[in-house]
């Protein structure tokens, strides 16, 4: 039956339940983050320092059983510090490549907008192609490969805003925001949640993840649903609130995210509610407000969803 839970989704449900015990009061954001990785995309977390961005990345890596590396982006970080460098081996009279921290399954690019644009661009090929080209040689990255990047709001001192070409590489952008009063009270009473990430047990074998991703990607998408997604794309291109509209690649990202969201909900087909649930996370960082240089607001995106008819 269409509403019956999918047995293959059970491991992900366990991951969701455990993650929500660590990231308190952010059930929707945690689910969106897991949806992003399940859809094979990269995730951008933007918020003030101390909101739990790094803890969320640690939590997902630990529960999914992924190899994990963290790069602290600073203004003096060089591209070779990310991708690796070749050094001369005197014994062999040859150069030997030392892989950088990007050769991992889940890379946390912490405070990515504190690095210079040249260093930020070192991630572009890796995020898009799953490979790194260094000194004329192309080297594949481990699979699966995810980037979870955090950035502070661009109005803070010492930041270099990500260009639109790099923002488009992130399937989703999320803001965690302040916790609810109840969640903050539990956090203050129990202490930092970061310590729990050091002792957590993986709930998923890394080898299972590609199979689950394929199952999510196979979630049925009916023709009227595709019509709805296309109507949303078209509406952004003619809406006076936006400086420019969404690209076809954004449409593919929206469908991939909606399929993963529906699969996590135990459905075998995507419904309009799934598209609406992920739309803001997929679209806002790809849309610029016509009234300024910032992202489209939640209110603008919500208004667009109300204006476009549901099939």
Question: Top keywords for this entry?
Answer:
Helicase, Ruva Protein, domain 3; 9 strands; five-stranded parallel β-sheet; 311 residues; alpha/beta
Molecular structure report:
The strands form 3 sheets. The chain has a 5-stranded parallel sheet. The chain contains 13 helices and 9 strands. The protein has a domain at 219-311: Magnesium chelatase subunit I, C-Terminal domain (Helicase, Ruva Protein, domain 3). 37% of the residues are buried. The model is unreliable at 1-5 (pLDDT under 50). Strand 6 and strand 7 form a beta hairpin. It is α/β, with parallel strands linked by helices. It is globular and about 70 Å long.
Tell me the layout of helices and strands.
Blueprint lengths: L9 H13 L4 H12 L3 E5 L6 H12 L3 E5 L7 H4 E6 L4 E6 L6 E5 L6 H4 L3 H6 L1 E4 L2 E4 L5 E6 L12 H4 L2 E5 L6 H10 L18 H9 L5 H16 L9 H17 L7 H12 L14 H10 L4
Parallel strand pairs: 1-8, 1-9, 2-5, 5-8
Antiparallel strand pairs: 3-4, 6-7
Helix pairs in contact: 1-2, 1-3, 2-11, 9-11, 10-11, 11-12, 12-13
Can you summarize the main beta sheet? 5 strands, parallel
**What string gives the helices and strands in order?**
HHEHEHEEEHHEEEHEHHHHHH
* Name of the top-level CATH class of the domain at 219-311: Mainly Alpha
Task: Tell me which CATH architecture of the domain at 219-311 applies here.
Answer: Orthogonal Bundle
């Amino acid at each position: 039956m269409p509403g019956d839970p999918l047995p293959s989704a059970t491991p992900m449900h366990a991951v969701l339940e455990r993650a929500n015990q660590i990231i308190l009061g952010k059930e929707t954001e945690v689910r969106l983050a897991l949806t992003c990785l399940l859809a094979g995309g990269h995730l951008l977390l933007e918020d003030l320092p101390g909101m739990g961005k790094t803890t969320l990345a640690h939590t997902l890596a630990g529960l999914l059983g992924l190899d994990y590396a963290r790069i602290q982006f600073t203004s003096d970080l060089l591209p070779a510090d990310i991708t690796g460098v070749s050094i001369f081996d005197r014994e062999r009279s040859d150069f030997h490549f030392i892989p950088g921290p990007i050769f991992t399954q889940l890379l946390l690019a912490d405070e990515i907008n504190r690095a210079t644009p040249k260093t930020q661009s070192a991630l572009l090929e890796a995020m898009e192609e799953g490979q790194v080209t260094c000194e004329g040689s192309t080297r594949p990255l481990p699979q699966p490969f995810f980037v979870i990047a955090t950035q502070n709001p661009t109005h803070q001192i010492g930041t270099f805003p990500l260009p639109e070409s790099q923002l488009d590489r992130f399937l989703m952008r999320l803001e965690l925001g302040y916790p609810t009063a109840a969640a903050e009270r539990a956090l203050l009473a129990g202490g930092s949640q970061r310590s729990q990430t050091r002792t957590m047990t993986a709930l998923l074998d890394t080898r299972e993840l590609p199979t689950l991703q394929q199952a999510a990607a196979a979630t049925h998408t009916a023709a009227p649903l595709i019509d709805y997604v296309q109507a949303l794309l078209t509406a952004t291109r003619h809406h006076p609130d936006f400086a420019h509209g969404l690209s076809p690649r954004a449409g593919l990202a929206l469908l991939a995210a909606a399929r993963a969201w529906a699969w996590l909900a135990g459905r075998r087909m995507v419904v309009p509610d799934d598209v609406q649930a992920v739309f803001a996370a997929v679209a806002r960082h790809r849309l610029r407000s016509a009234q300024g240089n910032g992202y489209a607001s939640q209110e603008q995106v919500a208004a667009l969803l109300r204006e476009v008819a549901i099939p």
